[in-house]
Amino acid sequence: MGEVLLPGLTQDHVEQLEDRLRTFLGSRELPLYRMMAYQMGWVDQNGEPAMAGEVRHERLHAQLAMSTASALGASPESAIDFALSIELAHHASLVHEDVEDGNTDRAGRPTVWWTWGPAQAINAGDGMQAMARLSLFAILDGSQPRERVSAALEALDDAVLSRCEGEYLDIAYQERLTLSTEQYLEMAAGRTGSLLGGATMLGAVAAGVVDKSVLHAIREFGRKIGAARQVGLDIESLWGERDVSSQGRLISKKKNLAIVYAIEHGDATLRRKLGELYMQRVLDPGMIGEVAALADSAGGRDFCLKSVTGLIDEAQRALSAGGFEGNQQAQLMGCAAALVEVGRNLG
Question: Domains along the chain?
Fold first, then answer.
């Protein structure tokens, strides 16, 4: 498994989750499900077991659900079935995202659409989303109360819909030169924060939380952490070691907070230079360094770093507003620190 382990969890918990994921997806034999197994990192293009260490997936959305349950006094094991659903929804969104951005590589190997074509990739992504919901219905065969499963389904569907709204805005903003930093951060909270908010809600539901105000607070915590994670990825894509997916966003002219800030606050000469670069149909990869230098000269990198700190502070305020106790906040903020650090360093 991966190197990141969120607070309150052990390697055994993560291995239990992985076994549960494999069992659930492996219960169906059509080659469609082998495409899903490929996305999850278990097999290669031919359906043969992937080599150890070939693919790196830390299951962070599932881990966050389990760690949240732990922070609220439940056992991580009790949240595994809830965590399963948000991890499948996350990977469904990645399959679709790779089609939208034209990413040919993810986690060091060809993406699903690059391997099987965009039509089958969309089909596989839709299938994974359906499996995410079915995994929650399967809990009804166990000891979970029906009301808890209903609340989990609502949390999952709300998170997925919010993710779709964020993706819509991300695509709609693609050809817009002018955009406010507030609009960008709201998009990031939906695009990247929605499923993390869903993970925290599912963990809380698994722990027996029913109070709507508490669930709203923990959802807001997740959304703010997701926005901070996205800004961390923005920093990495311009000034760190760019991976193929982050470079794909830049090439396709998807927005980046540092660039949005530079266009909004830079002088006329800088705005004109960035405008000329972004008037191209696609951004030449060789121009990314110039874009980064222009954004930095306008204060874009500093603004991004301050935004990460500010969003983490907002996440903690959401927990305080929800009435979470000190030890609960400490574990959840430990999750936040790990997730944002991963976003800034790994992509």
Answer: 11-345 (1.10.600.10)
pTM of whole model > 0.90? Answer: yes
Rg (CA), the chain: 20
Angle at 48 between CA 46 and CA 52, to 5 degrees: 125
Helix locations, the chain, DSSP H: 11-25, 31-40, 60-71, 80-101, 112-116, 118-137, 146-172, 181-191, 193-206, 212-239, 244-251, 257-265, 268-278, 288-297, 300-321, 326-345
Helix (H) or strand (E) holding 106: strand 105-106
The two tokens of residue 312 are: 């983490």
pLDDT, averaged per 10 consecutive residues of the chain (347 residues), comes to: 82 95 91 95 92 74 98 96 97 95 88 97 97 92 84 97 96 88 97 97 97 97 97 92 71 90 94 87 85 95 97 98 96 96 52
Q: How far apart are CA 160 and CA 112, in angstroms?
A: 20
Q: Are 227 and 192 in contact (CB under 8 A)?
A: yes
239 and 259 Cβ atoms separated by less than 8 Å: no
